[in-house]
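help with this record:
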Amino acid sequence: TDNSYQISVLSRLSYKRDNDWITENNEPGCSAIGERHVQGLVNLADNLEEDGGFWLVPGFHKYLPQWTIEHENLLSQYGLCSTFNLFKESVVPELYAVACYISSRAGSVILWDQRTMHGSRANSSLRPRYAQFFKMFPAEHPTMTEKRAENRRNGILARLRAVNINPETDLSFLGRKLFGLEQWSD
């Protein structure tokens, strides 16, 4: 399997800008080589429909390649935002019509194939929405070079320190592994 495109894109990430995290999150090229990558979120508070929150188009991952070809004009019309597109409902009403809102309780985990069209809806209530998004991929992935792993660790450490989190004292051993600060083989 040729994953040279993935390697060329992901090896350039410094993890100093938000766009680098978005690029990693969307894992360019994984669909072309048949990889499955999972995205998810954990709701930290109950999330009702009027609170905004997560929605997706069920089964869209099966149609993404064909849909992209059929809607190539949207890229030039709408523009690429880093490695993802933002579409107004008026542009793709057929997708909004079949999108499902997922209401969930605090502690709920929602997982989806990253190729599934998904997004967040506006909050029309007075309650805040608290959720943590995450991305899962194999720890021994060929694109995770030593340099990329080091850049990623440094980026995570900088973000943790910016909010006064000391990874040595405030994170568990598992937490440090999940953030990529410790090796899974340790």
